[in-house]
Amino acid sequence: VGNEMWGGRFAARPDAIMQEINASIDFDKRLFHEDIDGSKAHAAMLADQGIIGREDAAEIARGLEAIRAEIVAGDFAFSREREDIHMNVEARLAEIIGPAAGRLHTARSRNDQVAVDFRLHVKGAFQAAEAAFGRLIEALLDRAEEHADTVMPGFTHLQVAQPVTFGHHCLAYVEMAARDRSRCADAITRLDECPLGAAALAGTGFAIDRHATALALGFREPTRNSIDSVSDRDFALEFLSMASIAAVHLSRLAEEIVIWSTPQFNFVRLSDAFSTGSSIMPQKRNPDAAELVRAKTGRINGALISLLTVMKGLPLAYSKDMQEDKEQVFDAIDSLAIALAATTGMVGDMTVNVAAMRAAAGHGFSTATDLADWLVRELGLPFREAHHVTGRAVALAESQKVGLEALELSALQTLEPRITEAVYAVLGVDASVRSRTSFGGTAPDNVRKAVADWRTRLLSA
Ligand code: ARG
């Protein structure tokens, strides 16, 4: 048997190892819809331009739809000998419609074919991610609204810093997810150019209409430079960059869920639906979903570095190195999708332990800054001096093993004689969060307003 694909030039079949390193069909079959859509648009354009006959184009379209149906039904015999999705589809087309199949590849190369297929796929992935970020934002907004008044400790260095509201904490993640979402929209505007018709790298002498195929495939316009068209993978790198940043955000929330759901913190409880048990320790409820979300970040960040490294130093235009773009991106698409879905699920699922959060918010002298601010506001102390007085109050409370609010007035007055009974109003955690009304601050009314603002913004987006 000769060489099925390159019979003209090649007498022998590829070595088994050559086939193994070269064949991409095992993973690029995922592009079958895009490949068929791209080929249909190309064939229709070729017919409109009088480059191939109308009947041949109609046969090609019919055959391609038959192939799509076979693949969807699981009846398609993918072949490694036919290397990739492009050759698999074309060879099957010849089996179904005969010689007219040979006209499809006029004025086209696999280089622009794979570029258009992959771009379409990544565009779809960006759109899906954009919608998934929207669902996460909705889930976070619901919790933020519900817990606008729920006081929890805010942390720096994972040590209690100042009381905040759980609603405000949720809104911090809304900000992150909204930036991730907008990165999708930004990237789509840049990738929305169609490389089909760049052919191998130089363009073609056939009178093709690249604007027509671009439009038919839902792109804004054709790419401008044929060499760049077949050598550019920025759209894939942008997806991986967006996904990496988003995965970092998700890993931070996942980490907090892990911490919050420990018996020591006991801030949230995940239901049975989002927990796993231990095979040996009957008491355990493990937050495996959160841990796996945290871990997906490793794969996604790895994919970014992997593709950056593949692309680095590649001379123009196409080199087969670029076939190594797909597995990384496909894995990142899937990892991001499941991480987003699991996070959205956990955000909606978790039961918030309001009492535990509130109790913890009062630990660690969390209203010390409120005391210092009171000394500045009511007694006119410079903040540095107020900081010093408050430090001594904390030391005193620590030695008595009580909170600031439990110190006797007379004790406070030994530190600063002008302190009055009124100071106790600012030493409670509720008063503390209510006072944080500066724009972007944690006060419950701010949180309610921020939720409402986000809802309007999402509606208009
Ligand atoms: N399977 C190839 C890829 O994914 C398609 C393009 C092949 N082009 C070529 N000149 N060998 O990149």
TrEMBL record:
Q: What is this protein called?
A: Argininosuccinate lyase
Where does this protein reside within or beyond the cell?
Cytoplasm
Entries under PANTHER family matching the protein: ARGININOSUCCINATE LYASE
Fumarate lyase N-terminal domain: residues covered: 8-302
* Organism the protein comes from: Aureimonas glaciei
Q: Name one GO biological process term.
A: L-arginine biosynthetic process via ornithine
Query: What Gene Ontology cellular component terms go with this record?
Result: cytosol
Q: Which HAMAP family match?
A: Arg_succ_lyase
Q: Which residues form the Argininosuccinate lyase C-terminal domain?
A: 365-433
Q: Domain of life here?
A: Bacteria
* Major localization class: cytoplasm
The GO terms this record gives for MF are: argininosuccinate lyase activity
Pathway this chain belongs to: Amino-acid biosynthesis; L-arginine biosynthesis; L-arginine from L-ornithine and carbamoyl phosphate: step 3/3
- Classification via PROSITE patterns: FUMARATE_LYASES
Q: What is its EC number?
A: 4.3.2.1
Q: Which UniProt keywords apply?
A: Amino-acid biosynthesis, Arginine biosynthesis, Cytoplasm, Lyase
Catalytic reactions of this protein: 2-(N(omega)-L-arginino)succinate = fumarate + L-arginine
One Pfam family of this chain: ASL_C2
Q: Which family does it belong to?
A: Belongs to the lyase 1 family. Argininosuccinate lyase subfamily.
